[in-house]
Amino acid sequence: MNQIGNLAASIYDTEFGYASTELEREVEVVAISGWLIANEGLLNTLIYTQFSGTDPGMRLEEQNIFKQLYLSRYYRKASRDVLRNITTDGLDWTRLSEGDTTIMRNNKNETAKTYLSLAKEADETMTNLVYSYNLYGAKPYQVAGADGGYATGSGMWPPNYMYPYSWQGYPYARY
């Protein structure tokens, strides 16, 4: 299996894993991997990378960020689905009583709030992972100017250093 498929299977097995048959599991894993492939650009935007395809060569750090990104979007969608069902259902009851018999049903508003809190938790985790990744994992592609070194080994520019071009367009202008 390719890297995206392995990541999708890992997400499903660790976070959901409710399928009763292997076929149901495979259907869910394929759906997750489809989402992951379709949203590689979102990951690239977050962590300044260029992953693409089914074998992008992600390390564990990028996979964890991608997992949290998926979970955040999944829980937000689940919350919207619950809220959508509230508006399309006829009567919304949470408790029915007759005589000594009581039937209770989950409150859909509370279910939507739970999904939304799970999405916020995934967002916070993802934000922390992205900050850490960008701070420690990302390396600059090019270092230019004074960051790239000095003209002399002393750590300072020579006093009368002549720049080859100035911003005014005159060659060898002094600053």
Description of the structure:
- The chain is mainly alpha-helical and 175 residues long.
- The chain has one domain.
- It has 5 helices and 2 strands.
- It has helices spanning 3-16, 22-38, 40-47, 60-88, 108-137; strands at 95-98, 101-104.
- The chain has a two-stranded antiparallel sheet with strand order 1-2.
- Helix 1 packs across helix 2 (22-38) and helix 4 (60-88) packs antiparallel against helix 5 (108-137).
- The longest helix has 30 residues, at 108-137.
- The chain is elongated, with a radius of gyration of 27 Å.
- The mean pLDDT is 82.
Shape descriptor:
elongated
**What is the number of helices?**
5
What spatial order of strands do you see in the largest sheet?
1-2
Q: What fraction, in percent, of the residue positions are helical? A: 55-70%
* Measured distance between first and last alpha carbons: 59 Å
Beta-strand fraction estimate: under 5%
Number of domains: 1
Count all strands and give the number: 2
Radius of gyration: 27 Å
Largest sheet: 2 strands, antiparallel
Are there runs of 5+ residues with pLDDT below 50, and where? none
The whole-number mean of residue pLDDT values reads 82
By secondary-structure content and strand pairing, the structural class works out as mainly alpha
Secondary-structure element string:
HHHHEEH
